[in-house]
Design a protein that fits this description.
The protein has 57 residues and is mainly α. The protein has a domain at 23-57. It is 82% helix and 0% strand. It has 2 helices and no strands.
């Protein structure tokens, strides 16, 4: 995963729990997922628009 070993992932998870707390982490993951989904949809729509413009020319 991103070139990280299990030790690094574990340390990052522990630090995240210490900083945000166990109740806040699912909310942060949900918000990150929605942001990434919106970003992907935006890229897809812009690619679709660009391909439609090329077909019209």
């Amino acid at each position: 995963m991103f070139g990280l070993g299990w030790t690094e992932v574990g340390v990052i998870a522990i630090v995240a729990i210490l900083i945000f707390g166990p109740k806040k982490i699912p909310e942060l993951g949900n918000a990150l997922g929605k942001t990434l989904r919106g970003f992907k949809e935006g890229l897809k729509t812009s690619n679709d628009d660009a391909s439609q413009e090329q077909e019209q020319q």
